[in-house]
Amino acid sequence: MTRDEPGDIALPLRHADDLDPLLTRVGDARIVCIGEASHGTHEYYAWRATLTKRLIQEKGFDLVAVEGDWPDCYEVNRSVVASGDSRPTPEESLANFVRWPTWMWANQDVLDFTRWLREANQTRPEDERVRFYGLDVYSLWESLREVLDYLAEHHPAEMESALTACRCFEPYAEDPQTYAAATRFVPDTCEAEVIDLLSALVDRRRGAVPDADGDPEAAFAAEQNARAVVDAEAYYRAMVRGGPDSWNIRDTHMADTLDQLLAHHDGRRTGRRSKAVVWEHNTHVGDARHTDMRRAGLVNVGQLVRERHGESDCVLVGFGSHRGTVVAAEGWGRPHAVMQVPPARAGSTEELLHASVPYDAALFVFGPTLPEWAAERRDHRAIGVVYRPTAERWGNYVPTVLGRRYDAFLWVDRTTALAPLAGTEGRTDELETWPFGA
């Protein structure tokens, strides 16, 4: 360890070129996970997009995988790989995000990035265009409907397994909480039905059953929707029991989906393996083993990516700020609002950086030898979609060894709220994700 203070190693962050040291750190890594300390901060989204553009242009990354539902994000994917005036446009695809909290993806920063990506893709052959996918697990009914639509169009004679799953869920009126609550008291669940559905789709795509229509992308999307149904069913059953299981099912699903995306797209470009940028909250991106999440029995995407791919093949990037404004809600499913983020808690990482970094925004790239402050455990702020600034003394901080949890860290001293797209307040199907609402 060294005795360097944060201000001694902080690199000024003003322009895209200031990310050069981070691009050097990325090197030939296959996966770069880029976090955010809230789901409603403009600077996090904007710098994340700037870094992602450079990774696409300079490092050959060809997948963007985000903390969003597969069906909604697949529409965004269709919009960014489309040609010319094809539909849907990025505006249309983001306007279709209806699950609360819609502002996570239906916001101006994501719209700007997806417009850029669509335009950039026009210069690429279709099989080399950069894709945009969702990793999350919440889309039980939406994904089930997508599977039904796929089978109806491509394999109508094989719809029975999907219809059986639908009939199992039918009494719960598309309310996952009602289904989950019922499983606490009645041993019968829909687990077997959704596993049978997935098995049928996996067998077909992998050739156990010939696929006459030859549409591998549609078959892959249908399989991923079926995986979302299987893991969502398990997630909702675990959620009503409390504890870490639901969180772990969700993050394991996201890591599994990332691996399936990489495997599916390997070889799409001759002689080159696929490379993914992941956009998620810090609580998913930063390695849980270097936080108190580990003591709570939690795993997360950053940990799983490091364990599965090796630390040399992935880079984890975190964000933080001292104060500012943020878009969040006072309760689960409540309307969003712009809220004040108060100055960071005494003794926190954010207070330390505010006091010692001489720049409005800065980049830290951590190596194997850490300064003492980055190797010490300190509180690190985490704002979810539900946020109550007056309650910060009791929550919103995760004890963290910053230089081990992340490979790099972007600091913005004062941040501003992002701009949700008009008319995207959304509906609520889920309860708050234990324990962070992240």
TrEMBL record:
Highest taxon of source: Bacteria
Transmembrane feature ranges: none
PANTHER family the UniProt entry points to: ESTERASE, PUTATIVE (AFU_ORTHOLOGUE AFUA_1G05850)-RELATED
One GO-annotated biological process of the protein: response to antibiotic
Organism annotation: Nocardioides antri
UniProt name for this protein: Erythromycin esterase family protein
Cited Pfam families: Erythro_esteras
